[in-house]
Amino acid sequence: MSEMICLLVDDEPSTRTYLRAVLEEENFSCLEADSGRQAMGILQKIDGRIDLMITDIEMPGDMDGIDLACSVKAAFPAVPVIIVSGYADGEKLARLPKDIQFISKPFVSGAIVHAARKTVE
């Protein structure tokens, strides 16, 4: 299986490091962003050529993870998105496009691997 590219978006460096370690063991190459704006900049620069994006909901700035997911789906509809959060409420989750998977924090590495594999199949 060829290497897949995943964009990890989280304002916590330790979370990105953990996700990167888990996904690299599963043959993903990871790009990282610490905000929604930075993630959109990366996606625009590479014309959306990634296999998966995993983003947290709660991030500083004017674009949270749900806004980012909606923007990505509008600009690059083929990019699969997984949202992770420990603080998501029903109102926020109701804004998610239907084809976006949600995983609640804390999670075990197997949950991310399973979701990533299922999402990119």
Task: Describe the 3D structure.
By secondary structure, the chain is an alpha/beta fold. It has a single domain, classed as Rossmann fold (3-Layer(aba) Sandwich), CATH 3.40.50.2300. The protein is 41% helix and 21% strand. The protein is built from five helices and five strands; from the N terminus they run E-H-E-H-E-H-E-H-E-H. A five-stranded parallel beta sheet has the order 2-1-3-4-5, sandwiched between helices. The longest helix has 12 residues, at 13-24. The radius of gyration is 13 Å and the shape is globular.
List the main descriptive attributes of the protein structure presented here.
121 residues; alpha/beta; Rossmann fold; 5-stranded parallel sheet; globular
Beta-strand fraction estimate: 15-25%
Distance between the termini: 12 Å
Strand order of the largest sheet: 2-1-3-4-5
What is CATH's topology name? Rossmann fold
User: What's the overall average pLDDT, rounded?
Assistant: 90
Note the run of SSEs as H and E: EHEHEHEHEH
Tally of helical runs: 5
Oligomer: single chain
CATH architecture: 3-Layer(aba) Sandwich
**CATH class call:** Alpha Beta
Tell me the CATH superfamily.
Response regulator
Give the topology.
Blueprint: E1 4-9, H1 13-24, E2 28-33, H2 36-45, E3 52-56, H3 65-75, E4 81-85, H4 90-94, E5 101-104, H5 109-120
Parallel strand pairs: 1-2, 1-3, 3-4, 4-5
Helix pairs in contact: 2-3
Brief digest:
With 121 residues, this protein is an alpha/beta fold. Helices cover 41% and strands 21% of the residues.
